[in-house]
Each structure stands twice: as structure tokens, then as C-alpha cells.
Amino acid sequence: MWIQPEEVLLAGALWVSERANPFFILQRRRGHGRGGGLSGLLVGTLDVVLDSSARVAPYRILLQTADSQIYWNIACGSSRKEITEHWDWLESNLLQTISIFDNDEDVTTFVKGKISGIITEENRLKKGEEQEEDCGKFREAELKMRRLFGMPDEEKLVNYYSCSYWKGRVPRQGWLYLSVNHLCFYSFLLGKEVTLVVQWTEVTQLEKNATLVFPESIRVSTRNTEHFFSMFLNINDTFKLMEQLANIAMRQLLDNEAFAADRSLPKPCKTLKNVSALKRDLDARAKNERYRMMFRLMQDERLDGHTDCTLWTPFAKMHVVGQLFISNNYICFNSREEDLCQLIIPLREVTIVEKADSSSVLPCPVSISTKNKMNFLFANLKDRDFLVQRISDFLQRTPDSSWGDTSPLSLIGHSASSSAPSSSSTGSESVHRGRHYHPGLPTASQGLLQLYHRDAPEDLGPKAMKEKMKEEAWNIHFSEFGRGVCMYRTSRTRELVLNGIPERLRGELWLLFSGAQNEMSTHPGYYGDLVEQAMGLCSLATEEIERDLHRSMPEHRAFQNETGIAALRRVLTAYAHRNPGIGYCQAMNIVTSVLLLYCTEEEAFWLLVALCERMLPDYYNTRVVGALVDQGVFEDLTRAFLPLLYEHMQELGVISTISLSWFLTLFLSVMPFDSAVLLVDCFFYEGIKVIFQVALAVLHDNMDALLSCSDEGEAMTILGRYLDNVVNKQTVAPPIPHLHALLTSGDDPPPEIDIFDLIKSSYEKFGSLRSDVIEQMRFKQRLKVIQSLEDTAKRSVVRAMMTESAFSIEELEELYCLFKSKHMTSCYWGSSSSAAERHDPSLPYLEQYRIDPAQFTQLFTTLAPWICGGHTPTLSARLFRLLDQNQDGLVNFKEFITGLSGMYHGDMTEKLKLLYKLHLPPALCPEEAESALEATHFFTDDEPQESSFLSDLDILGQQEVTSGEEGKDGGGDSEEKKEEKVKDYRYYLRMWAKEKEPKRETIKDLPRMNQEQFIELCKTLYNMFSEEPLEQELYHSIATVASLLLRIGEVGKKFNNGTKKTDTAALQALPPTQTAALNPQREEGPCEGGSDESQVCRALADAQLEPAALQTSDEETKDDTSVSSYSVVSSSSLQCEDIADDTVLIGGEQRRGSTLDVDWSITFEQVLASLLTEPPLVDYFERKVDIQNKMAACKAQRAVERQISSASDHELTQHSV
């Protein structure tokens, strides 16, 4: 066992060295083992006589360094085997590593730290296995992880391990923390701190390897770097957990199910004695997945437990050793020897479970009987009583009859469908008459092939006789091994499948081997109800289905009429309605049409479910991820089995071109139908393994021809001709012409290849493929494929945004990564499910990732060039409302970049226009202003005034149009009316097209700003300049502009009041009055004389602004109030919030009264012209700001937080010491 390092001064006393290297010595105590002489005898006697607590272990391992006389005892053992295991581990994991260190002190420190870490982890694992460890230590580790890496409470730690992280040539000993969403590492050794955080969604490759440089290690690759971790106590367990967490992350990028799975993980609590509750849950999930895959069970099946046992096989008259699996709905058995025997017993079929009499031949047997009179005898069960009790508990929850429909999609009920087969009354016929699917349909009771063969004369030829012999062989098999779900599945079953399933039995056996039979039995009436719900609905999926219906096996007579087409339509539409995440994908129509030939509609539907959701996972989603993953697996298999051909094919780029169609359609689209359907037989029994085998065999058979190819087209032609001539010489049906065969030309037709020979050779040459190896390769490829799809999405988004923003490609890519990271964070740390629900990979790339106001504020605060201090969240919320055009509470990347680009790359007018809009509805919500109600009334009342000229023109135009229409209608006949209607139709189409055209907004289109909104604008401007170097000049400038705009508003109010007494229409056509108001000489007169103007001056004084800022020639006109107000504004000692509250309360006394001055308003043109008079403001808004520094700060923000937290931790520990 490893022990805490202890100093040893005399290494040779009473000990004999047996092994040594430059750093470690393995010693045996004298008196143990052979030899030892008198001293050994004496030492041995002392060890025996002494009390057991004082005895010394006979073996130990010492750490030594060349320059030191002090040794460190790091391990001891009671047997040679135990100490040798420790010695081997040191040599394989530590010896090469510590040879890199420059001085002996570093070696000692590193080894001591490593041994201490191993002891800690061993103790934790030992206590976890005993179920006695309190959750305190795990809770402490979780809190430490959150503190070190700045993680919120929502981040769940799964497990943590002691290991070494290779930073350069030197390993850093520390702790690896694996959470649901992150891989984290922390080390503080030799005075150096190492902190690493990697999101699982960023991992592109994860593999376990061993090299000369790195001992057995785990490599974690991202797009930009690689990380190596080694010296694990149990590297296999750690790697499996990493794989599971990376898989969850990849699912998160694909769909929302993984986020739901994340939220379903249990949270560690005090009641759990086992610290690793999350890991236990993930391990259970992995076992469930393997169990479901092994026996082709439904997704909701949960494994309860498994145990070793033996099964009596009556056909072989022997006991088969294997494992018994119990879940909530099934009892399954799998032999230890592959393909010897497999058994699936649904609990709905079980009638009796009883304990049989034990004997020496059959210890602890259990007998299980089923409804079809089969009896299964299991023996050698360790805990028979508990097992029988568990089965009885599950049986009590299982109804005697077939299960009811438990799916939430079945809303109509299935009483009609379920009662129809036993009812032939006129009442039931009337119920079925209005339904799209009912038992009276021909395809509801038999496959399409049976419909078209029943009238054909009986064939007595040799092929037909061979078909009958196949049927007879299967009947014998049924009588010997059983028929139905509970059939014994043995190597004999596989032989019969490889020889071809007879047409009459094909549908039944496909259902049995795929597991679809179980799902169909547990959901009676589900398909009929689903058809009723789906038919008549219009969606993108139904449009694509209609387009592809007549392309589905058009050469087959079954799909040359409405019966086959209608059945295909119903099955595809029902599945698209059941699984909107997949909907419909091309190639599904080809596969489904083949299923309908041999199965009824309902059976074909459940086979399609089994294919899309279990046997070919992710094949038929919008991005065909599953097929791309298997394409990558196929390339790896080609590299392993056919290395020469692989290199040549990679140069030509053929593998990726050919394999996609092979996998998506299971060779049905590239091979004659009668041959390809035999591959489908094998596929339903063996799974995807057989498709890989046959694909490799096809390449192997054409290796010489492919190696001589010079381009891709030639290679495609060779493979196409080969597959066209794969024939089934045993088929009974007349040959169906294959479309690819029509392209074959030449005087010498290529030789025919028998499909049975091809399948046989594929098993002989590549039969060593195992399903678990394929799954491992799939995981590796899934990381690559999904990350490459994410890169493609990023490139598409950047390309689309290049024309709509002035950011560079590199800047857009970095902004996209930051935006996506913020979105993903909100998904897995969000308190509600809304964040995960907004992630929809089926949406266009620009809209896939969306953020809510909280995430937008975080990005805005870090990235925006306008720094407003405490006012920043308010400004961010306004910009969010302005960008959220559809008002769904979310902003996508395009909208985000639009707002950011306006702040960074717009000219002064564009920036001011954006700032102006941020203080108008919808950006400025009424609740933000003090006089919200008055401001809203003013805006609604004033809006028609400021646009009345345009609205009057519109009204006149409408009157002319309507009067013209009335004249035409009154004076014309019916034909003229028809012509007019056609003109109206075209007219409205043109108008609609014009409306859809993007309108370029001009400054004249912007609405007027009222006094309350102007106050908010001034607040924002004051806060924007609080951190600027020219802060005083900018404050002075904004005070001047605010004063000027107040006067402009007052002058405008005077003119507006005057216009009420005159003809409105005439005055509407006058030029804007702000051009006169902007002239300082014209303002001085009315300001001194009129009563309204004096009120403005008093309001400016109350507002602590400068009332006569433009009268620069008369310095004496500035009274004490204005001077003091300016001094308050320019005081650098005040906080920006204080300035905003004290200096921008324009008309404060008036607002404290009863009403607001609702007639006061200004336009954007006036704001722009006023700001142009102040050079400091012009310089500020025309200044270019570099976003690179902002993005670097945004990326480093979390790292800075982590460094601060870890530094403070060290300070605390130092103080405590």
C-alpha cells in the first residue's frame, strides 16, 4: 500500500535491497524470504514476538536522490506481489517524468505530492465503495472547484481525480475536476500555479494513448490547443467518464434533449452517503444504453440489475453460462460466448414465475412460463429470493392485457382502431369511413407485395421450390427454438438470416429482430391516432414528402398507383408528426417504401421508428450527423483494413462521396432491389456492423481497378457498375430494373456478382468487426463531425454578416464565439428550461443561437464602446428592446452585430441616430421615466402632428384612388369590373413587393423627442463621459448643447401654438423652423423680451445648466447661478450618478408641480445640428475604437476572476498558517 512519505535515515539497516534505479529502491526485510543468516533469523524472530501493531511490513519502496543521504519511505507491502505492482507503476508512470527535473529537491517535492494525491483518492474511493463516506469531502471539493474556477452553483461536479497535467516538458501534479459542462484542472506546486478550464462543447478530440514522451495519458484536443493528462490511479474509469460528458456536450450542440438530461441529473445532497451521486447516475445511464442496444429495447427502458446465471437450452440439451438482466418491462439473457444464445422475455408475456427445487445439478433454479406455453429455466442464481421478488414487483405493475397507449401524442383515443378487427358492424364502418387510416384499408392488413402477388398463378419453378425450402427451414427453427418475441436467438438463427429470409416471413422477422414488435405491442392504436392528427396539416416536412412520393421506387409496380403512394404518404407524415426534430429527410422515402412492400402500414411505421431512433441514430436529422459519423468510421476502417487503397482513395476524395448514399439508404439506392433487400435482412439482425462489412468487401473486390484510377469520376464509375451487377439468383419475383444499370454501357457487360457470395466474403474477411469497437469509433468521429458542422455554421454566419457590418472576418469569428459561449452558458446554467428551448439547430445559422437580456447586458458591458458606469445596464436594456424586432425577449447574432456595428463603425450621424433611438419607444419603456404617463400621452398625441404633412398626402391619394374606383365601377359593365379586379390584384402585389423591400431610414423619418425623453438622453450623455480624459470639456459641451436644445424646443413650442390658430394644412408645407432657431443672433431677441423665453431661462437656471451659453460676447450676462451651476457640472469630485441626478433635472420645479410641458419637442436634425457646434463632442463620436482590446478583455474576464479567487485563497491560507 502507498503510505505518506516518511524520512528514513539508515536505508541498509535490517533491510536487503532487491531492485534499484536512480530514484527508487525496493527492499525486503531481513528474516523474510530466502537466506538472511543469523541476523535474518534474529530479525524474523523479533517481528514474530512483537505485538501485531508494532510489526513492520516485510517489503518497502524508498525514494532516493543522488545528492541526499535522506531516503523517503513511500510504499510498503505484505507480499512480493503487492509491492511489485507498486514498483511497476512507479517505473511506468513516474520514472521517465522525474528524469526531466533539473534538481533533486523538485524530484522529491513532486513525488511526495503525487503519492499524497494517490493516497487521498484511494481513501475516497474505498469509502465510496463501502457507502460510508459522508458527503462532506465531496461537497468540499465541489465548493473548492467553484471557488477556484469561478463557477456558479448550477455547475455540478461529477468527480475529481489526482493526476498530472503536462505544461511544456514539466508535469504539474494537481487535481482534475470533471463537471457536467467543464473540464477543470488546478495545481499549485513548486511555487507555480496552473489553472485550466475547457468547455466540453469545445472538445474536438478525446483519446487515450501512450508514447515514449508521455506515459499512459489522456489527450484532450480543442480547436486551438492540446492538453495531456497522465498518472491516473485508474485511467480507464476517468476516460469513460470523460467520454460520457463529452457525449452530453455534443448532444447539446445537436438538440435540446441533452439540456433536459442535464437538468434531470440528481443534485448531491446530505442524504446521499455516496459522494459520487452524479457519477453513479451517469454510470447507470451508460449501462442502460448498452442494455438497450444489446437487446434493441425502447428508449425509456431502465435496467434494474443483472446477475450471472445459467440457462437451460432444450434445443442443445445443455446449460449455457451468461448474464440475466432485469428491467421494468423485460427479462433478458445473453450468453457469455458470443452468438451462443440470446433471449428476450417481455413481462407482458409472463404467466408464472416460481422457484424450482434445488439440486446438485441445478442449484437455485427459477422457472419462468409464458403465454405461448414456453418455459425457461435459469439456475446458479446468487440471490434467488430477491430476484423472484423483484420480478414479482414488476409483474404487478404490468397489466395482464396489452398495455394501453401511454404516449402523449395520442390525443384522440384508440377505441375505434383497437375494436375494429373484432367488429364488422355498420356502426364501426361509419366510424372508420371518415378516418384516413382504418382496418378496412388493403395496406392495414398486408404488405404491398402480398396485394400484388395474390392473383398471380402459383410458380412451381426451381426458384420457387428453393423459397419454399427456406420457409420450411424457418418453420423447423420455430418449432425448435420458439416463435415470436421469446424465441431463442442462436448462431443457427444467424445462418438462416444470412441465407435470406423468405418473402412471407420477412415482415414478421424484421419486426422481431429490430425490436419494433415490442414497441408496436405496447402502443396499440397509436399509429392510427397519429395519422388522424397529422393528415391535413401543412408544414415544410409535408411539402418535401409530397415532392418525393413519386420518386420512391417508381420502377416497382406497387408504387405506380394510389394505393402504395397513399400508404407511403401516411407513414412518412405520421412519423414527421411524431418526431418534429427529424421531420422528414431524403432517403427516408426509399427505406419506407421497401418496408411497406413486406409489412402492413403500422408495422412499417414502427420499423421506421426503430431505424431512425435506435438503429441509425441521428441519420435522418437536418444535418445527417449520424451518416457523416459513420462515414468517418468507414474511412477509419478502410485505413485499418485496406491501407494502400485508403491512401489512394483519399487523394481522389472518393470515400466521402460514395459512402453517404450507401449508409443513408442501406444500399437500396445503389444496388438492385432483390439484392439490397438481403442486406436489409442482415442489417435488422446484426445492426450497422454488416453494412460496414459489405462496404469494405465492395472496396476489396475492386481494389486493383480502384488503385489504377486517376480521377474521382473513374472510381465512381467502377463502383457503380460493380454494384449494378450484384444479383440475387434465388429471387422468385420478376427482376425490377435498376435505374443505375441503365447507365451501364459497353460491348462487354461486367460479370455478375452473387449477393450471397458478397455477404459470405464480407464475413470471412471483415467478420472480426465488433459492435462495441464501432461504438467507440463512432464517439471519436462524432466529436469531429459535430465540431466541423459548428465551424461550417460559423463560416456561414460570418460570410452572411460580412456585407451587413464593417467588422473584419477575424473580429466576426471572435464575436460569434463569444456570443455562442454566452448562449450555451445560459442554456446549461439557466434556471428555467426556456434557455434550452431557444436552442433550435433546425433554424437558419444566424438564428440558432439567441441570448436573453441578462446575457446581452453582460456582453454589452464588456464589448460596447460607450462606457456609462452605473447607467450601462439601463442603456443595455434599451438597446436590447430596440434590437428585439419580433419582441420575443431574445436577440440573435445578426441583431447583436447590427447594434454593435453601429456603435463601432458608423459615422457620427449613424452613432447619434442610434443614441437618439435609444431614448424613444420601444427602446425607452414608459416605466423608466418619472412622468411616464404624460410622456406616453405626449408621444401618441404628437405623432400625427409631426407627420401630418405626409399623412395628409396619403389621405388625399387614397381619396383619389377610391373616387376613381367608384367612377369606374359606376360607369362600366361586368367585364370592366373584372379587368379592374385584375388590376387591383396586380396593384396590391406591387405594393406588397414594395413593402417587403428594405427601406433605408433617413433622419427625417425619426419621430420627435419630448421633454422626458430629452432628460433621459442628457443623463446618458453625462454618464458616457465620466471616464474620458477630456471629461471637463465634454461636460461643458453637453451643457451648452442641452441649453441650446431647450431653447429650440421652446421656440418650436411657440410656433406650434401659433399654428393652431391658422390654417394647419398651409403651415404644414412650410420649411422646418429649427433652421431659424439654430441662429444665435435670432435667439437673443426673443430670449430677453418674451415671457415664454424668460420662463425657459428660469427653467435652465433651476436645472443647473448655463442659460446663455451661446452669448459668448457678453460675459457679464452670466449671473451667479449659471456660474455656480457650471462649477457643479465640471466638478470632478462628484460621481457620474450624482451629476446625472443633480444637473439633468431640467424643469425640476415645473415637474414637481401638477403637469409636464407636453408641447415641448425637438427633432433629430436639431440634436445633430446642435452637437455639431461643439468640437469635443464631434471628436468623441468620430473617434475610432478598436474592438480587439474589448474582446480580449471579455475572454480574459473569467480567467481574471479565477486568478483573483485563487490568490485570495492563498492569502487566507498563509494568514491562517
UniProtKB/TrEMBL annotation:
Region named Disordered: 414-439, 1073-1093
Keyword list, A-Z: Calcium, GTPase activation, Membrane, Metal-binding, Phosphoprotein, Repeat, Transmembrane, Transmembrane helix
Sequence ranges of Low complexity compositional bias: 414-429
Gene Ontology cellular component annotations, sorted alphabetically: membrane
Entry superkingdom: Eukaryota
Domain named EF-hand: residues: 871-906
Gene Ontology terms describing biological process: system process
Chief location bin: membrane
SUPFAM superfamilies named in the record: EF-hand, Ypt/Rab-GAP domain of gyp1p
CDD domains in the cross-refs: PH-GRAM1_TCB1D9_TCB1D9B, PH-GRAM2_TCB1D9_TCB1D9B
Rab-GAP TBC domain ranges (all copies): 500-687
Compartments in which it is found: Membrane
Pfam families for this protein: GRAM (PF02893), RabGAP-TBC (PF00566)
One function term, GO molecular function aspect: calcium ion binding
InterPro entries linked: EF-hand-dom_pair (IPR011992), EF_Hand_1_Ca_BS (IPR018247), EF_hand_dom (IPR002048), GRAM (IPR004182), PH-like_dom_sf (IPR011993), Rab-GAP-TBC_dom (IPR000195), Rab-GAP_TBC_sf (IPR035969), TCB1D9/TCB1D9B_PH-GRAM1 (IPR036014)
Record membrane topology: Single-pass membrane protein
PANTHER family to which the protein is assigned, alphabetical: PROTEIN VASCULAR ASSOCIATED DEATH 1, CHLOROPLASTIC, TBC1 DOMAIN FAMILY MEMBER 9B
Role, per record: May act as a GTPase-activating protein for Rab family protein(s).
Name this protein carries in UniProt: TBC1 domain family member 9B
Species of origin: Seriola dumerili (Greater amberjack)
